[in-house]
């Protein structure tokens, strides 16, 4: 995943309603949900739902297909997996495999060899 795509996905998921929609679609699995069902479950008016689904589509986090008169939305699992891979790429100093067991105490940021800033004395 490219950096710009990761930023777009994180920005889209950084909004509470869009995160709720995406989580609901992740739970629904590959079969997805009709737009009306999403709106009902999350108590969203159609215009609001349409706006947020558009933002998720723009970030490639959801796909949709037409079934009769309904639009069925699904989470884009390959994109989500790519985002997770991008985010864990440098986990634990590049040992991404150890991220499964990583905790704040086991996955420390790289040491910096910078001198701390000092106040100027005049």
Number of helical stretches of at least 4 residues: 6
Secondary-structure-based class equals mainly alpha
| Largest pleated sheet | 3 strands, antiparallel
Q: How much is the average pLDDT? A: 84
Question: What features would you describe in this structure?
Answer:
The chain has 122 residues and is mostly helical. It has a single domain, classed as Winged helix-like DNA-binding domain superfamily/Winged helix DNA-binding domain (Arc Repressor Mutant, subunit A, Orthogonal Bundle), CATH 1.10.10. The protein has six helices and three strands, in the order ααβααββαα. It has helices at residues 3-13, 16-28, 35-42, 46-58, 77-88, 91-94; strands spanning 33-34, 62-67, 70-75. A three-stranded antiparallel sheet has the order 1-3-2. β2 (62-67) and β3 (70-75) form a beta hairpin. α2 packs across α4 (46-58). It is elongated, with a radius of gyration of 20 Å. The relative contact order is 0.14. The model is unreliable at 106-117 (pLDDT under 50).
């Amino acid at each position: 995943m490219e950096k710009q795509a990761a930023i777009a996905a994180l920005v889209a998921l950084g909004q509470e309603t869009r995160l709720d929609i995406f989580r609901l679609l992740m739970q629904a699995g590959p079969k997805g949900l009709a737009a009306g069902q999403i709106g009902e479950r999350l108590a969203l008016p159609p215009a609001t739902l349409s706006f947020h689904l558009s933002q998720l589509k723009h970030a490639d986090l959801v796909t949709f297909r037409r079934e009769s008169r309904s639009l069925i939305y699904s989470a884009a699992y390959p994109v989500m997996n790519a985002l997770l891979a991008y985010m864990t790429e440098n986990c634990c100093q590049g040992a991404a495999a150890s991220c499964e067991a990583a905790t704040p105490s086991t996955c420390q940021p790289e040491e910096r060899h910078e001198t701390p800033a000092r106040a100027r004395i005049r």
